[in-house]
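ok trying this again, last paste got cut off
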Amino acid sequence: MIAKRFFFVCAGILCLALACQLGTRSAAAVGVGPQGASFGYSNGVKSLSFASGRAVYGYETSQFGSDFTAVPAPGGAVPGSDEIIATLQYPGGNDDNYLVMLANGDVYESTAGGSWQLLGNFPSSVAVRSATWGAVKARYR
């Protein structure tokens, strides 16, 4: 009887130790990092564009300059709800134009006029069907 209780106490302590080991992780701040960053170079002008949340930001240097100065993207928030995976600021002469691509393949353009316009849909990747481990094992038996 005592051995049985001792076994259950040890099993309980082992379960607690495993739960603490597997369940703990360090605290970290949650934030939105830059998405879809791209760099460009044309006629001595270096440009950088990226998205944070639904807003697009661009920076470019002056002709043969080295300091980046902010160039705001016109048009406000990018339409759609998918993640922004690519951005492009037209480098050089027309620095108010931006292209963005969403995860579903939609490509939008924002020009000096203001709003975002849908240019089309880039063919996205092929959907992959997920399978459970049991289904994979059953297929190869």
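PB: full thing came through this time. The longest strand covers residues 35-42.
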